[in-house]
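Below sits the subject:

***
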Amino acid sequence: MTDRLNGIHALITGAASGIGAACARRMAGDGAQLLLADVNGDGAKRLADELGQASIQADVTRAADIRRMLDAAYDRWGRLDVLFNNAGIAEIRPLLELSEDDWDRMLGVNLRSVFFVLQAAARRMREQTPIAGSELRGKLIQTASIAAYRGGLANMPHYAASKAGVVSVTRTAAQVLAPYRITSNCICPGAVDTPMWKKIDAEWSKLEGWQAGEAWKRRTSLIPLGRPETAEDVAGLVNFLASRDSDYMTGQAVNVGQPVQGRRREPTKGEFRCPAGYTNSHAARHFGSATGATDPRPRQGRGKVRRGLGTAACRGADHVACNSTQNQNLANSRAHKEDSMPRSTISRRNLLRTTALAAAAAVSAPYVRHSYAAGKLALGVWDHWVPGANNTLTKLCNEWGEKNKVEVSIDYITSQGDKDLLTASAEAQARAGHDIMSHRAWQIQVHRNVLEPMDDVIKALVAKAGP
């Protein structure tokens, strides 16, 4: 390729596959001398043999292996110019099911080991002479993630936390090591077509009951550039950070390809996306905790959505509307609507508690109480995708209805991913009307307590005027 990295001696962790392997090929092609380290020693050796480089088997979570890895580099070259601190893992674990072991394992590999590899390399780099043709003694490059900024997928909270930690460590190291002429930067890839993402897709799709490849498809369908990242895309950035062209760059976390905020993306389970023109504060006022909600007031139904009030009137019956005013600046800014979609995570419990507050205020209580007294109760569940016929929520609602001698009907209102869920729900409410509206808590798939908020609402209604 080029001689851009001639004379550069680099250690790459997590080098056997994915981003690490692509960066090794790119850096070797540009003249760098490499030591490829991976817990998969055979994989690292195969790649090293292909590139005419050196390799070592090392588990970066073990202090002895970190020392052995650095010793190998210094025994071979007498110095280390670049550390690409890339080793990491990813796994699917829903937030409410995440165990202490899951948390410790993820942060142990993705954050703890990153710090101690960085520390071991920096201790040696500060004692060596500057890189040929540069004022710097060494360069530290970490692999973080775009999840460090915008949070992870709903089923990868510990991964996002670990990568946010990597960004923090990188920036701290940049300040501490600057007097020694050592720079520290990190890269923040998004959805990269690597074996790691194939593993994520398999676990995520299985959890959701999707066909293989569906999670990857949803995650990448709205990438602004029209295609997912490749490991080679990331390698170009790493190559630049390893070169002398980036000598004055330190303390930076550089995203690869995808904006942190931008085009609309498909909501994940448990996530609610506000429609255009609404801010997160609007969502909080509409669907926040009972103590934080504004006083609801009745609206006569006109069979259409009144966006300024965030309500859909239903068949002339009194219904709940929150007293929030649409942000006119946002509403008048078409570009802002399309390019900066605010989002808010809304829990079904909080939504129903707000409904209970409205009932206690005697707003919609007469309407709902009438249905309850007649032995029928209509429940509208906001959902992004149609659930299976025998899902847990339906079963629990039927059990609740039998216990309380109430016929419960459930209408799953879905956007099918084609429109904002609030809009789809409002349209359905205008057509049919429901006694209670709910946003389904996707993360809770099998727990019996998913129905507890419904009891809270009914109790509030009964306490107000009785069945």
